[in-house]
Amino acid sequence: MLNELYTTKELSQIIKKDRHYIQEIREAGLITGIRLGRGWLYPADEINRFIEIAKNYDLSKKEGLLLASHELRKKALNFNKSAS
């Protein structure tokens, strides 16, 4: 199944945030994208995953971004341990 890709500008319109915010959430590991030249493309499933994360955390402040990022990494580590 093909996954639709969105540019940073399109993502900013979807989540109603500017490109600087998108850079912050990408650097915090809350959304992953594909680097294409100087720009980024974001798969639709990643956008949907981020929207679900955003429901559970106050991502308007740096502390919320860091907390969400930490919790996601912790969940990923626990998942990897249980899969072993």
Can you describe this structure?
With 84 residues, this protein is of the alpha+beta class. The chain has 4 helices and 3 strands, in the order βααββαα. It has a single domain, classed as Multidrug-efflux Transporter Regulator, Chain: A, Domain 2, CATH 1.10.1660. The protein has helices at residues 8-15, 19-27, 44-56, 62-83; strands spanning 5-7, 34-36, 39-43. A hairpin with a 2-residue loop joins strand 2 and strand 3 (39-43). The longest helix has 22 residues, at 62-83.
Order of helices and strands: EHHEEHH
How many distinct beta strands? 3
Helix proportion range = 55-70%
CATH topology: Multidrug-efflux Transporter Regulator, Chain: A, Domain 2
Radius of gyration: 13 Å
Biggest sheet: strands, sense, closure?
Answer: 3 strands, antiparallel
Based on the structure given, which CATH architecture is correct?
Answer: Orthogonal Bundle
What would you call the shape?
A: globular
Report the portion of residues in β strands.
5-15%
Q: What is the CA-CA span between the terminal residues?
A: 28 Å
- Please state how the strands of the largest beta sheet are arranged side by side: 1-3-2
Q: Regions with pLDDT < 50 over 5+ consecutive residues?
A: none
Summed up, the domain count is 1
Helix/strand/pairing class, anyone?
Answer: alpha+beta
Task: Supply the number of helical segments.
Answer: 4
What is the top-level CATH class? Mainly Alpha
> Kindly state the mean pLDDT as a whole number?
86
